TrEMBL record:
Entry keyword annotation includes Nucleotide-binding: yes
Catalytic activity: [glutamine synthetase]-O(4)-(5'-adenylyl)-L-tyrosine + phosphate = [glutamine synthetase]-L-tyrosine + ADP; [glutamine synthetase]-L-tyrosine + ATP = [glutamine synthetase]-O(4)-(5'-adenylyl)-L-tyrosine + diphosphate
Protein known as: Bifunctional glutamine synthetase adenylyltransferase/adenylyl-removing enzyme
Gene: glnE
A GO MF label: nucleotidyltransferase activity
EC number: 2.7.7.89, 2.7.7.42
Organism this protein belongs to: Nocardioides endophyticus
Organismal lineage: Bacteria, Bacillati, Actinomycetota, Actinomycetes, Propionibacteriales
Amino acid sequence: MTRAATSKGNLLRLGFQDSDAALTSLGLLGDAAEPLLALLGRTADPDAALGGLLRLRDVVDDPDTLITALVDDEGTAMRLLCVLGASEALADHLVRHPEHWRELTDPILGSTRPAAWAIRESLLSAVGADAADADPVATVPDAAAVDALRVEYRRLLLRLAARDLTHHLGVDDAAAELSDLAAGTLEAALAVARQRIGADAALARLAVLAMGKCGGHELNYVSDVDVIYAFAPAEGADENAAAKAATQLASNLMRVCSDHTGEGTIWPVDANLRPEGKAGPLVRTIASHRGYYERWASTWEFQALLKARPVAGDLELGRGFVETVDPMVWSAAEREGFVKDTQAMRRRVVDHIPAREAERQLKLGAGGLRDVEFAVQLLQLVHGRADEAIRAPTTLSALAALTDGGYVGREDGEALHEAYAFLRTLEHRIQLHGLRRTHVVPDDEASLRRLGRSMNFLKDPVGILDKTWQHHRREVRRLHEKLFYRPLLAAVARIPGDEARLSPEAAERRLGALGFADPRAALRHLEALTSGLSRTAQIQRTLLPAMLSWFADAPDPDAGLFGFRRISESLGSTPWYLSTLRDEGQVAERLARILATSRYATDLLEREPQGVRMLTGDLQPLSAEALTEEMLSLVGRHHEPEVAAKAIRGIRRRELLRIAAGDLLGQIDVADVGAGLSRLTDATLEATMAVAGRVARTQRGLDEAPTRMAIVAMGRYGGFELSYGSDADVMFVHDPLPGVEPQVASAYAQAVANELRRLLALAGPDPALEIDAALRPEGTQGALVRTLDSYAAYYAKWSKVWEAQALLRADAVVGDLDLRQRFEDLIAPLRYPPEGISLDDVGEVRRIKARVDSERLPRGADPHTHLKLGRGGLADIEWTIQLLQMRYAGAVEGLRTSRTLEALAAARDADLIGEDDAAVLQQSWRRVSRVRNAVTLVRGKPADELPRDLRERAAVAAILGYPPGSSDAMVNDQLRYTRLARAVVDRIFWE
């Protein structure tokens, strides 16, 4: 060798990593080293290729013949060296079977793909079976036949890999040949199975139907081979005996392929896509298959059948199976639950990705192979009903047909084809190295270098490989989203350029498949949003593919799109609106999710469209102080009381939206919701009372108020636990200033309270804030406003135990700070008696609760699911905690709180309730409160029962964090929470 050729610099340029070892190894090749050196530099791993060549030379019968053949024939040399540099597993195979190197001298190897019949014949011959027989039977002894099948499979695989690596076959050619190789292997394994069971094999006709990638003629180098078996009794045979024989044949076929022997294994045969999966019989008649698919099959099973084809055994019987299931496959999109099932299948794909692999998963990860395959198959299922031209089982063929048919834009189709071909080629190269089933891109530099070079990236293989992979990954993610939605817009909008154009009918079908209940109305909304050449329409056409995708993933796509149209019509000409949605992807996604989930929040957005801006930031509720300051500032600028009240309500509307959005998007907890709503009510009452006071003073010609006033929050409001649909339970208290006539002070306080209620009740586009003062002394028959002394006199003389219980949640929150404190000091002995309540009073509390249980539950309501008054519901839990407070708060300071969870924690810390029981009540209270809020968010109005409407129930489940299709699981969990809570209530409250 020349000095230049063997310089370390030249070796490194050629791709060798260990130049010292390479020099030593090249020296062992003598004169052959220099002519082979350039060829080694074109392999995936020159070091491995050189090392593999020396290993092979040491075991062949005639080393000189090997080396001479490589020097004399560049084609042979390239094929062998490329295999040795790319596949450690095939290098090991050549060392075990050195005679197979001669396979790579075949001059037609690089230009001709073997016919499927030739591959089948070769594999059958290896086990001694006659390919001309209708039912070939192996004649080679069993163990030898199993080994011979493995050796022949590897020989054929070696030829394919050499052609693939050297001549860079298209991924569809390589995958199709791998599928033919799998089909021939199944046929040969079936021949071995027939030999094993002997004469009984003749009792049954057995068809082996390939599914998945094998069925689609797009198999990987290493993959499970998915199959389904169909059988029929041979003429004159008993069906039970035939079923037994067919089962034995199928079982043995699977073992022949997957068993480990001295020659290794081939691949597992997976029959779990059959009806009922692992639990179902391994073989069925076509009639049995038909019965299952007509009555029991899920939509995803028809999606799996899309690629079914007969590959081994009785092909005529297999074709009969395909003809039977085909009509069902192409009508699957019309089935009830189509959307739910396809979404569930997509979730299963994502859920199966280990977290450590998510960013490097070629198959299942975002922007991976499954995104392409899933999108293509779903488009086929939707449109293939009416268009037989797009029913091809192979992904790239189907994509080409979809592009030709206008279902996918031409440029998008080409980009997706290129991306898919790259990803599949990369997957093949990864698997080829060790012949292991993996879809994860390695992260070590040596492996990445080998992969990059195997794909002909000889300069900077690691950098170019990563850059190209990430580019195609981004394209797949973008196009996966666009495939479904962009052509919908082209169907209804006048879009210039060479865009895919669906017919309105095809667009309706696609919208229906995506879960829109009224596709025709959805098309009208799309037309209204996207028609025309204005900048607004152009931005909407850019936005809507993503928006439609998010709507389709949400519980109510129709509501989402309709809400988006209405908000866009309100804000479309506002400069910041569309640009914010276009440039802030998070805002658009948040908006879509809210609109397609919550009628309550959608109504607020329609009345407060500027609230879209709020979605750009943090959605934590504001403090009562900040809100009160903002509202009082507005009150000072508006002299008309109605105008001032409207301004206050505008801020309240905005903040209700903030809380609802934070709740829907999972940014705030149920306790934060209750606290936020309660703070907002505090500020609203404080500011509105300021307006009411101003009105009362003006009417009476007063310069200042003659009495101090305060508002006492009661019930859930006092407990800082308001829900979206709660009234504000309050009591009014006042204390005349020194020297003021009692009647004057009382008349003024009454006027302020009445004006406050009037202003809050003004008609307007807002969720009402209703004031309920029924918990005041003497209820609705008593005075609306009382002095502090009047409260003291009443409670000293007339108070009942239920009023003491009601005062447990009293919290003086609005008005004069000193008066608020004096009121709470006044009621402290009543609600926290030093010695606790008497046993008679305990009995009275229980009697009242029993009456509530029997009389207040609405007619027709289910006591198991009613959120407030049902068994284990809010009332059960809260009465239990309140009874502990009335009995023990005099001695346990921590129980002196108006808040349910704080009191529960104090009871647990004081050993008044066990740790486990306290945990059950806490979890159940939080759960039921969340569900109650979710129901209001979904329906737009308060309700204390789980909705019966399936779509509303699904939306409640989504708000609670359940994946789509899990509403039944949500209900079951709800029943479990309340059942456990009721058991604790029975022990603690009812003893």
